[in-house]
Amino acid sequence: EPGTVVALVGPNGAGKSTLLSLAARLIDPDQGVVCLDGQDLAKHSLASVRRAIGMAGPDLPLLRGTVEKNLRYRWPDAPAQEIARVRALCGVDEVLAELPEGEKTRVSEGGVGLSTGQRQRIALARALLGNPPLLLLDEIDANLDPKASAVVDRVLAGYQGTILLVTHRLDHLSSADVIWYMESGRVMEAGPPAKVLSGNGPTARMFRAGMAAAS
What we know:
Layout: E1 5-9, H1 16-23, E2 35-36, E3 39-40, H2 46-52, E4 53-56, E5 65-66, H3 67-71, H4 80-89, H5 92-97, E6 106-107, H6 116-128, E7 134-138, H7 146-158, E8 162-166, H8 170-175, E9 178-183, E10 186-191, H9 193-196, H10 202-214
Parallel strand pairs: 1-8, 1-9, 4-7, 7-8
Antiparallel strand pairs: 2-3, 5-6, 9-10
Helix pairs in contact: 4-6, 6-7
């Protein structure tokens, strides 16, 4: 539903990242359609899809080139005030202060040379440029330093659009509107966090097993 936060969970290979790639039209479905606001994404230009959908995750690493080029990837002609907004929101200004040439600093393919937190903040700002109605986040909250983790928390709390979030963090699962548990390419369980995390279904079993293994 519009404006909801959907958390995707499941074992490795369940199809979570594939689902996000389909939603972002990084790949097209073999059958069926993917619709946003009732419109088939395959019938619209990639440029318009990129403006309507922001995504951050391992399938969209930073590109070779300047930090500015990366920030403007989805909207090359974005006004300066919009660039400034997402830079401030995602803590990119702090990252730029640590780089030798600020926004003009060149990064290698994948952002090699930057820390995980620096890469994630830039990638998140790129995804948020222009306030897209749909935001897709694939484990954007994994292995972050405290500053980058606080940025993700702030974005999730304040974003007004719809979010599909692949995550294993219980605090983010608990604050979602609904959890989808995926396995073998299918949604096997769906419901509000309070219900699925406390029940006897596959979601609760997976997290109980994870906590037992960590103890």
